Amino acid sequence: MNKNRIAITLGIVCLVLTIAISVQIKTMKGTSSTVSKRFSEDNLRDEVLKWKEKYETETLNLDNAEKRLATVREESTKNDTTASAKEEQITLNNNLLGITDVEGKGIEIIVKDNSSITSETIGVLDDISNYIVHDNDLRNIVNELKNAGAEAISINGQRIVSTTAITCIGNVIKINDEKVTSPFVIKAIGFPERFETLSRSGGILDNLDDYLEISTRKLDNVKIPKYTGVIASKYMK
Amino acid sequence: MILIAIIIGCIIGAIIGINIPTIPYTYSGYLAIAIVAALDSVFGGITSTLKKNFDMKIFISGFFVNAILAMALTYLGEKLNVDIYLAAVIVFVGRMFNNLGTIRRYYVEKITTRKIIAKAEATIKEANEENK
Prior knowledge:
heterodimer, A: Alpha-Beta Plaits, five-stranded antiparallel sheet, three-stranded antiparallel sheet, B: 86% helix
């Protein structure tokens, strides 16, 4: 057998082989195969965990720094009446903005999906979605609480501030970009006797009570956490 | 000579492959199995060249028949919902390792024999000089 012919045959076969390999690589580049998908998913998960850890340590640092700032402020304004008046104003404004933990007299409303109604027991004409808590219900309750003079409101630990949005994203509800699910524990600080009017007949809570499981109780000490997000303004000057 | 031909073939193939359009994603599985079959053929060809029993007819027919059979098995596996192509991959890759072992042994033996011959020549030279 001629050695040249062998070489040429092998060369041609290699040529076809490399053409096929490069076409295949090019084809697979656009689509994500299961192997690479799993790999990138794992990477993303790791990244999320890392960022979460970082976020938690940073939040701790921020908390410590804020505490230090508060003590420093207190000390420096001790012997100065105008400064201490300003200090009080700052504290009040911070409380109103929702960037400090607050506590006081108030109520706690727990709103749950109605568990006694299932798709089997429900009537033909009724709709099962009436018996679960919607974002709209939460918005109505928050509005009602504000009308009743609530000074601070939180839902499942999410402080309601001026920029808070309560939106529906499928199965869960998003408040302050955090997902919250039933049961919803709504806490509000305010004059307790005024909150009693919330459960008046024909009121929003009364109407919702026909469909959902709602329990209300007055508390002497409601603790409402601060808003953990960022309050930023882009266009205000 | 063979090595040069393989390298030239690879370079030209890569250049052509980069410039031609891609194939639909559905057929990429068949192309992948054909690539494995072709790789197996190339290794088989190199081995048989080293053993000096290279047969053009067997090489060419093996190249095409193996690739087509592998693709047909993949198609059948897709219809039957069994990953038959895995069997083809295992056979081809196993044979590739076998062939690679043969090639490696051939070159290792060649180098060791060369060294032994060089040593023997050196001893003979020394003996000749002593005799003088």
